[in-house]
Amino acid sequence: xxxxxxxALGRAAERPxxxxxxxxxxxxxxxxxxxxxxxxxxxxxxxDAAPLSRLARVLGRVGVDERTIPLITATPSLRRSWxxxxxxxxxxAINAASTSNADGVDRIVVFLTMAPLIPLLGVxxxxxxxxxxxxxxxxxxxxxxxxxxxxxxxxxxxxSTTVLLIGSVLMPEGGGYRVAWLLPALAVTTVTMAAATRFxxxxxxxxxxxxxxxxxxxxxxxxxxxxxxxxGVQVVSLVVSVAGLVTFTRxxxxxxxxxxx
Amino acid sequence: MNSTSxxxxxxxxxxLNYGQNxxxxxxxxxxxxxxxxxxxxxxxxxSTLLRMIATVNQPDxxxxxxxxxxxxxxxxxxxxxxxxxxxxxxxGLPARMRVHEYLDYVAALxxxxxxxxxxxxxRWALDRVDLADNHDAKIKTLSGGMRRRLSIAQGLxxxxxxxxxxxxxxxxxxxxxxxxxxxxxxxxxxxTVVVATHHADELAAVxxxxxxxxxxxxAFDGTPAALASRxxxxxxxxxxxxxxxVCRAIGPSRYRCVAAQxxxxxxxxxxxxxxxxxxxxxxxAPTA
Lengths: 261, 288
Description:
Number of strands of chain B: 14
CATH architecture of the largest domain in chain B: 3-Layer(aba) Sandwich
Shape of chain A: elongated
Number of domains of chain B: 2
Order of helices and strands of chain A: HEEHHHHHHHHHHHHH
Structural class of chain A: mainly alpha
Largest sheet of chain B: 6 strands, mixed
Structural class of chain B: alpha/beta
Radius of gyration of chain B: 20 Å
CATH superfamily of the largest domain in chain B: P-loop containing nucleotide triphosphate hydrolases
Radius of gyration of chain A: 27 Å
Largest interface: A-B, 39 and 51 residues
Strand order of the largest sheet of chain B: 7-8-9-4-10-11
Oligomer: heterodimer
Strand order of the largest sheet of chain A: 1-2
Order of helices and strands of chain B: EEEEHEEHEHHHEHEEEHEEEH
Distance between the termini of chain A: 39 Å
């Protein structure tokens, strides 16, 4: 099996500046031990340096804790299918918003209805045995399941929300309502995270997503856009978001215990 | 591994049901430092037991303690996981990641830090399984045997006091089966190692203790020599397989057979651990 020290010394030998010249000690050629130790210390950092991905380097520069970086950089690798599904969902939402006006349906309502479901989809695919090949390893590891779920959810949410925001800004119409999906998205996502402490993330997302669609159908059926996504709904969304976050945090131990069932 | 630490795993009357059917129903077992092999037919409960020990599954009844720490307690379970290495039966390796990225990720899951320390553990673990030259390879480019060794490497990260390995020799060629067996036996000098395997004569035979499960119950618990002795007077070699006996080919037109009754005239031979295992699961009723 490969000996790391041999590799280290091999690399040192390739660099003339690290070659220790024999020192004469009482007439005999002997290596200068102190010099060798100092030289090795010089290359030790190089030996420890592994190639970092571009994302890892960027995260390090913006101050993300270096223990958290592998949890974030691993997420896209574990879930390329998740990323693709989100992109498809975003394209679908934007397309729906720009083409569904023919039969009289308010196109902005379609967009505002669909947009909160996309971060929800990301959270549903962020954690669990069916979406994560390393789930069993992660469960048996000491890292808090709550923290892992949170880190992955934030990673997923930041990606999908950014894409959605760009899509919102590029929409030709809608005015301030183009971003009225943000607080409802936060609300359904945090409620899903709270529910994931009791059920699987996928099941929680399915229930919350369905409930959201039903709610919008009821409200939008009885009112215009201004009412359906107006200040009243925004305030309620904010309150629900806070309640969801508090519940999720309070029940964090349940998330960890649930993972061993 | 800390050679001075006291490692004591207690499996106290574990029971688990799948629906109405008992999947596992065991008496109290205590495992100390050393290697314990878990043998049993497919579906006998080996992986279920190992998943419980690895705190992945929760028993319906009974308790697991590692050196006094209870797996049922939230805080103590985390303390157990800090001393645990687990190699599941199915590797579950993310195909698109590189080998060193995967081990870095596992190290982060094991709360190993800073990054420099994680990289050293990665190198150490890859050295143990002879994958150091593949540290930058994408996992999808590795052979089945290499993936298995990578899976074992992740179990070694952090040098756990309790190492749980489910079928570690699967997909490995003869050379690496020997290397990994030596590695496991070596690790067992300082850790408690529990290994489920079908390789009775290659791996179980060199463990300190063997447990045989049959239909979720304990069928045997003792040393490899004691298990082998259960095959005494039940094993013979013959030119043709015998109906009603468990026969395996050992050469052209040559079979090694185990049965409750040796046919008249057959020459009885010395049983191996594998022969004793067959005798236990085929010709002995479960003891618990």
